[in-house]
Amino acid sequence: MSATFVPRAPGAADGIRASAPPDLAIAEPLPDIIPPRKARGRARRLVARHPGAVIGGVLLAVVLAMALLAPWIGTVDPTALSPTQRTRAPSALHWFGTDLLGRDIYSRVVYGARVSLVIGFSVAALASAAGLAIGLVSGMMRRADGIIMRIVDGVMSIPPILLAVALMALTRGSIGNVIVAITVAEIPRVTRLVRGVVLSLREQPYVDAAIVSGTRPSTVIWRHILPNSLAPMTVQATYICASAMIAEAILSFIGAGVPPSTPSWGNIMAEGRALWQVKFTIILFPAIFLSLTVLAVNLVGDGIRDALDARMAKDV
Amino acid sequence: MLGIIVRRLVATIPVMAVVALCVFSLLYFAPGDPVTIIAGDQASPADVARIRATLGLDRPFLVRLGDWTWRILQGDLGTSIFTNIPVTELIAQRVQPTLSLMLVTLAFAIAIAVPLGVAAAATAGSVVDRSVMALAVLGFSVPVFVVGYVLAHVFAVELGWLPVQGYTPIERGLGPWFANLILPASTLGFVYVALIARVTRAAMLDVLAQDYVRTARAKGLAPRAVLFLHALKNAAVPIVTVIGMGIALLIGGAVVTETVFAIPGLGRLTVDAILRRDYPVIQGVVLLFSAVYVLMNLAIDLLYTLLDPRIRY
């Protein structure tokens, strides 16, 4: 047995090698097991793993900035009429051209981001809150469940757009009314989801344990049921936000949405409807912005879903 | 089987009752008093009261609801305030274009989406899979009228291959009828294809991981036979379910598609009724569409028993 094994500190190999007898075999130094993390590497990995979510997040941030900074990025007052400049093609003065009344489409599109985002986020928040409350009651109280679910089934069998349209027929067009109409149409779906989650959570051992150990029902809901139903709720909320933006555009497009003077993407397209065969750009620009914004919200939603549920992420 | 059908039909009664209640409340709470419109400006308060009594509008909510329901059950949906034509007649005039549009869309969407979903699942992780999934995300993000205008602009206005707008009744020949439906059906089908393809893929991935699929492959069955005979058949239940649920999307989309392509169907009737605040028409259309949706999903429930003998009602 030759004395080949010398215990040594890592990195000392060179020193030993220099002074060691020529026949001494020395192993190569071990590489560091954990490579040092670079901040840039982390960001790159995030992009590589969730390219959609990152693209969606960036797009959404851009639209958000556009909405907030509208008065500074818009070139002209979006409601200013200029009868001599009607239906102009895109030019240096009017980047996206002008509409039937000579209003600048670029400025209207920029301001339109506000309407879409406000409606999308408000509907998502309101429908989630209402659906969460009703769903919790339905899932926790056997007696209320039957009645609530019958109503939910009934309301859900009215196609949501049709329900929103019918509600809008009852009131004047305004952003608030549009939010209420779309929210009412979305609540049943959230209620269903929350109830399902609550019913499955109620069967969990830790909920049983909490009940058995004498925790008050309100505390069980607050501590155990509510926090655990928030994850699927959040994913659903982003999808509601996306579909609310589309719903607003549809309502405005058929003339049952926000008042025509408000620059919303649906309204701009509604105004372009009469001339779409000759002046396609009037419809094209708001259409692109609407689609990109909805896409961004959907991608962010997919990202959240992937982060919260790895199994679902693989399949759907 | 007959027993099952009857039992399921009875189960839809409470659902339709809620729908009817919603729809009736719509008319009940509608702003504007039809009596003052009918009576005109010259009418005295006594005249208004008399007309109100003749029309039965002075009775309480529940009595009117009962009366209204009774008339609906007899097939009377009321009369349009604007045109004075019975709502059932208006609907009958407009039903063919919408029915054609929906059926063509349904047929073509299923014919495209299911193979796409199967292909994506069979090649999970590949370029094909990724493009199908990207298409699905796009389908959910691009609103139906945007798809409509872009398709119409490219294929009808720029290329001139297809008619731009309008509808040709089927009586005037299958060719023109179909030519007019290609663009609207593609428009309406876009989001539907996305939905079905996505669910087909997920259902197929689930089934393809099962033991009997591995057995079928191991005993040397052709990959195609495994995919379509063994796997797809067992993935059918979720696919059929989403086809049924998606009909709500289709109905909402039809309203918009008919506006874009100037198709004189039920969707257009709805839009016109809303712009004129013609409440009986709105009521009738909402009721009709909801009934169709409920009955379609009932039919799909019954289809389950054929697709999967383990399901019993």
Automatic annotation (TrEMBL), chain A:
Alphabetical list of Pfam families matching this protein: BPD_transp_1, OppC_N
CDD domains per record: TM_PBP2
InterPro entries assigned: BP-dependent_transpt_permease, MetI-like, MetI-like_sf, OppC_N
ABC transmembrane type-1 domain sequence ranges: 113-301
Annotated GO biological process: transmembrane transport
Recorded family membership: Belongs to the binding-protein-dependent transport system permease family.
Name of the molecule in the record: D,D-dipeptide transport system permease protein DdpC
Source organism (scientific name): Methylobacterium frigidaeris
Lineage, broadest ranks: Bacteria, Pseudomonadati, Pseudomonadota, Alphaproteobacteria, Hyphomicrobiales
The gene coding this protein: ddpC_5
Automatic annotation (TrEMBL), chain B:
Annotated compartments: Cell membrane
Main location: membrane
Keyword Methyltransferase: no
Keyword terms of this UniProt record: Cell membrane, Membrane, Transmembrane, Transmembrane helix, Transport
One matching Pfam family: BPD_transp_1_N
GO MF annotation list: dipeptide transmembrane transporter activity
4Fe-4S recorded as keyword: no
TM segment ranges: 9-30, 99-122, 134-157, 177-197, 235-261, 281-307
InterPro entries recorded: BPD_transp_1_N, MetI-like, MetI-like_sf
Topology with respect to the bilayer: Multi-pass membrane protein
Domain ABC transmembrane type-1, residue spans: 95-304
Cellular compartments per GO CC: plasma membrane
Highest rank taxon of the organism: Bacteria
Stated family: Belongs to the binding-protein-dependent transport system permease family.
Protein name as catalogued: Dipeptide transport system permease protein DppB
Organism whose genome encodes this protein: Methylobacterium frigidaeris
